[in-house]
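Here is one chain, start to finish.
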Amino acid sequence: MYNKIKITRRHIECMSLKSYKIGKEEILKLKDLLFSDKTCNVMEITNESELFRLNCQGYLVIGYKSGAVAFQDGINDYILSKISEINPPIKKVEKENDLSLNMRVNPDLLEILKNKFIELNIDEIKVNTTREFSRFIYEGSQITFYKNGTIYSQKNHPKFRDIIKSILGAYYDQNKIIIGQDEVGKGEYYGPMIVVSVSLNYNQILELQLMGVKDSKELSYNQIKTLFIKIKELNPERAYVQINPKKFNDLYKEFQNEGKTLNNLLAWGHAKVLNELLQKIKNKVDPKNITVIIDEFDRIRTEDAIKKINDLNLKIVQKTKADEEFISVSTASIIAKNIQIEILEDLEKKLNKKFTNDNWVEWLRTKDNYEYLKLSFLTNRLRDLKIKIPQNIGKNYYDVLRISNKIEGIDLDFKSEMPDQIHDVSKWFVCFANTNGGKIYFGITDKEHLIIGVNDPLKIEERLIGIARNACEPPMNIEIRHLEFTSNISIIEVSIPKKYSLSKVKSSGKYYHRISSSCDEMSSYEVEEFVKKNINTGENVDPKQTKE
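Its structure:
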């Protein structure tokens, strides 16, 4: 019997998938091959066009009745090897995005853009969904402004680009400098970790927006290489820190011996690369005009690391998923990914061997390969290590492996460690309680699903219970389990029940709910709808405390 895993359709639609057309007969053969593989778990299909939907080794694979197969990039080699067993001619499905324009701006500017479009007599039409802010018709194609700041045009009109540039350019402070920072390679067992810092003025940001720059995780390797060339043409000041596997392993061990975590290593890398970039621009820019934006992973450790290296009183903005929201961070992620791709391609040519997410056991067989591997991460991937059976398996070993193989969604979340901020944890609890309830696992990384465990589980349990009772309103009763992976690695499972009366974060008075795998503040409308749906609970809600 196959293990079915529930996942929301919206979550899947946000993932970056590769598509290949292999034929209707071949897709049936591929289905049989994958269904016979014990590493693939059956998932529920979401529409009639799908033939099957699987979670293979932690990655999504979808087969379509039309004869196409789509899958996440991390399982590329595995799926192509299965297709080669069938041996059909493979034709990649190309998307015609080059004729459209997809850019993102600050949502606060949408009202200004809308009014300017109306002034220019561009026809406004009715919006189709609640996600849309406004919609226009321009020279025969539709232009949609979304509330999150995304602007999509069916055609990439030069005149339209000029209009956008003239409108946005007038509201950008040309003296301001935005520094975006991001890293790649922190969760992959092979190759270096690259941390990039890039300095941009608003003219450059505007050009990058019109290029369609976005988070590198949403782009193919060819798109990353193409955009990197265009970024270089803009000639922004940039710096990067390259931490090769051997150095990474040494630093990771050093930090662990000091009672520190991977986040300390990341914070050190971000502080170091920022300092290198500031040395380049210190005589060109007033520090008062600099804003640094970082994809948040640990606010306090990052700020402390930066203060130790640089005494400038810079404005530091840390925000989760900043690589999706801010062009500067997206640009840094593209630069970092391009550097990583070039390094790995050179290594693969030199060694005549491919790095993939599913061939790491093969790399471990030869000690000569160890200089290319982040061994500190591989110790947590015992499930595939057939050549070395662990002697210290814990009582929940196989349960933890099964859990780590699941995909985050509306009722499941992974956290690498317990954060210092009480507000973060109470926000997560409220999110699940106001949706369908769910589980949070501490000690499993959210992106790579690596089992790293937690320090002092009993102390963490005590904190979690205290937060649920004292930082959430009304107080919550949560269930906590300690799951023993090995004799020295344990994770914590927190079960949050669904609440039929609204829960809020006590310190801020704000309401949150779970949208796919993210935690969003509830709008006044959403709060009202919740109350109407659960009117018999008698919960009183102050609309002033909700997001407008």
